[in-house]
Design the sequence.
């Protein structure tokens, strides 16, 4: 027969074991929670280092850590893609130490053509009001800097814009030099505007955005061109939405600049 003392020791031992199990479970949950928080912070840090437009007008994955992660869906967007496959080739990720010397005629008209996987976009460049910007695009286009680069960001909320011009496709890349803002006084961003993305005053590089619908952005982003043909290309990209179905993310359509040219028209 079990004595009262033995029964009390048994109950105390059982209670201790239950407490140990609960503490172990709590440690596991804490680790999971901290891992999630760490992942979110990492995402914010990466995003914060990019070139953004307005409130934010973006390292490759280090590899998946578990076999189960390979099975996770990478997108919630199941719309069929409408754009063509990109031409063979990879961005060169060029680095140029200084802003190019002025080589354009600021009194002439220039035209830039983006030959994308979703169609061609023609842009009239404003060399008179944004000479440094147009000169930079002329220089980079001659170097084939933009060829095979992917338009990495689409916003569809308060403003609808497509952002391009980063060879890394992360929103953090650039040509190695930066140049001053231009044409900001009274700047507005109606549909068809082409303007520079930046991460603050005087940080223009190679990233730019195409405005699909009129946006009430503050005059902080150098407008340097106007789309004269190809708004239907933006329609196609916007209709596809973002890869994760959010209002701000990578486009679902694979928008790649196969070739970019700048031509003096007159």
Sequence:
């Amino acid at each position: 027969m079990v004595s009262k003392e033995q029964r009390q020791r048994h109950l105390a031992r059982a209670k201790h074991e239950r407490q140990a199990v609960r503490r172990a479970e709590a440690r596991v949950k804490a680790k999971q929670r901290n891992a999630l928080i760490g992942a979110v912070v990492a995402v914010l840090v990466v995003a914060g280092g990019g070139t953004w437009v307005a409130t934010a007008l973006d390292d490759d994955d280090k590899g998946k850590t578990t076999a189960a992660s390979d099975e996770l869906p990478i997108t919630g967007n199941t719309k069929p893609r409408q754009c063509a496959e990109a031409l063979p080739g990879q961005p060169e990720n060029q680095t140029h130490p200084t802003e190019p010397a002025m080589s354009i005629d600021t009194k002439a008209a220039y035209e830039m053509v983006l030959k994308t996987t979703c169609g061609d976009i023609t842009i009239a460049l404003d060399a008179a009001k944004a000479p440094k910007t147009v000169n930079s695009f002329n220089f980079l286009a001659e170097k084939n800097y933009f060829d095979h680069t992917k338009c990495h960001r689409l916003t569809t909320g308060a403003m609808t814009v497509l952002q391009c011009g980063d060879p890394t496709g992360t929103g953090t890349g650039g040509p190695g030099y930066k140049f001053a803002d231009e044409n900001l006084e009274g700047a507005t961003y109606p549909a068809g505007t082409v303007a520079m993305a930046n991460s603050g005053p005087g940080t223009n590089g190679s990233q730019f955005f195409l405005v699909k619908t009129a946006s009430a952005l503050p005059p902080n982003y150098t407008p340097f061109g106007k789309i004269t043909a190809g708004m239907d290309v933006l329609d196609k990209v916007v209709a596809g939405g973002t890869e994760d179905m959010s209002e701000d993310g990578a486009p679902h359509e694979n928008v790649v600049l196969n070739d970019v040219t700048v031509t003096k028209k007159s």
Observations:
- Residues 28-49, 58-74 have pLDDT under 50 and may be disordered.
